[in-house]
Amino acid sequence: MLWTGLSQSLLHLAVWTVALLYLYSDCSGTGCSILSALQDLPSAPWTALRSKMEKHLQVISVLQWVISFLAMGAAGTVLLIYMFCTDLWVIAAMYTAWLIFDWNTPKQGGRRSSWVRNWTMWTYFRDYFPIRLIKTHNLLPSRNYIFGYHPHGIFSFGAFCNFGTEATGFSKKFPGIKPSLATLAGNFRMPVFRDYLMSGGICPVNRNSIDYLLSQNGTGNAVVIVVGGAAESLNCAPGKNSVTLNNRKGFVRLALQQGSDLVPVYSFGENDVYKQVIFEERTWWRLAQKRLQKIIGFAPCLFHGCGFFSSDSWGMVPYNKPITTIVGEPITVPKIEQPPRDMVDLYHAMYINSLTSLFDKYKTRFGLKESDILHIH
């Protein structure tokens, strides 16, 4: 009995050691080769343990991104300030000097890392929901593109997994196209977190950054904008198919000024991974949410998923509901440096029609009814 218990403990320890090596590998190093060798073992205990371990790794992979997004920036800032009050102040001063020197890098194409984008951790992230990327048309590397991503959801998991990592094989499906997911510019003022975001090819969603990518970075660039933004996240809920788009025309104007083609993108299931308390308009809570949104740049949503150890409890872990991202047909856009309003309205209407058609074409394949419609606000 003692020997059996000891053997099981050692097996657990070995498996988790390999798991940590494997999680941050890109399937070309030590972690991957060791796990591949262990997969060949015929023993039943290893098979059961491996299955359980994979499930835990999927949860950990998703949870680390949620916690990183919510807390890494604030934690990095507090740590940097604290280090100035310790014997490590020299390191803090050196990093601060680097931060000042590197301040404009996010607005000038960033600093993407193929190694980070190919971490094995992102495949566990993908498989937790799971997340799929479906290509409907070819994209020409000789053109630049603006992808409009819908809906926002709470954390835009589909947008991050498909365009901020290589877990769903974006570069293989769209050869010659380099995606850059745009997010809040305030995130790039946070120490450490800014570097984490840039390593995935994520950029600030501001005019300078997007202009640089579409005009000074050659061709084959695809800037991914979650068009609905924070306002849309306040209205997302399981089973709800609505996007905030009627008054969002800035991305269309930008596409015309740069001559970049517009590509509608819709993710079925993005709204299903969290449950949210949606407050009625003009209530005190909704007014407070909108006020905070204007101050801090994002909407403080009251949401919950499931617990780490049980899907029956409440927690920060999203529900493992499938997310399928459909990349639609590009809309060819001419280059007009000063597009008139009627031209912007024309291409905005074309974009809405294209997005609606994309939704209607694929909705019944991913759990919706023929009678379901896309509500555009």
TrEMBL record:
<dbReference type="GO" id="GO:0004144">
    <property type="term" value="F:diacylglycerol O-acyltransferase activity"/>
</dbReference>
<dbReference type="GO" id="GO:0048471">
    <property type="term" value="C:perinuclear region of cytoplasm"/>
</dbReference>
<comment type="pathway">
    <text>Glycerolipid metabolism; triacylglycerol biosynthesis.</text>
</comment>
<keyword id="KW-0012">Acyltransferase</keyword>
<dbReference type="GO" id="GO:0006071">
    <property type="term" value="P:glycerol metabolic process"/>
</dbReference>
<dbReference type="GO" id="GO:0050252">
    <property type="term" value="F:retinol O-fatty-acyltransferase activity"/>
</dbReference>
<keyword id="KW-0812">Transmembrane</keyword>
<keyword id="KW-0443">Lipid metabolism</keyword>
<keyword id="KW-0256">Endoplasmic reticulum</keyword>
<dbReference type="InterPro" id="IPR007130">
    <property type="entry name" value="DAGAT"/>
</dbReference>
<keyword id="KW-0319">Glycerol metabolism</keyword>
<dbReference type="GO" id="GO:0019432">
    <property type="term" value="P:triglyceride biosynthetic process"/>
</dbReference>
<feature type="transmembrane region" description="Helical">
    <location>
        <begin position="59"/>
        <end position="82"/>
    </location>
</feature>
<keyword id="KW-0444">Lipid biosynthesis</keyword>
<keyword id="KW-0472">Membrane</keyword>
<keyword id="KW-0963">Cytoplasm</keyword>
<comment type="pathway">
    <text>Lipid metabolism.</text>
</comment>
<keyword id="KW-0808">Transferase</keyword>
<protein>
    <recommendedName>
        <fullName>Acyltransferase</fullName>
        <ecNumber>2.3.1.-</ecNumber>
    </recommendedName>
</protein>
<comment type="similarity">
    <text>Belongs to the diacylglycerol acyltransferase family.</text>
</comment>
<dbReference type="GO" id="GO:0005789">
    <property type="term" value="C:endoplasmic reticulum membrane"/>
</dbReference>
<feature type="transmembrane region" description="Helical">
    <location>
        <begin position="6"/>
        <end position="24"/>
    </location>
</feature>
<dbReference type="GO" id="GO:0005811">
    <property type="term" value="C:lipid droplet"/>
</dbReference>
<keyword id="KW-0551">Lipid droplet</keyword>
<dbReference type="Pfam" id="PF03982">
    <property type="entry name" value="DAGAT"/>
</dbReference>
<keyword id="KW-1133">Transmembrane helix</keyword>
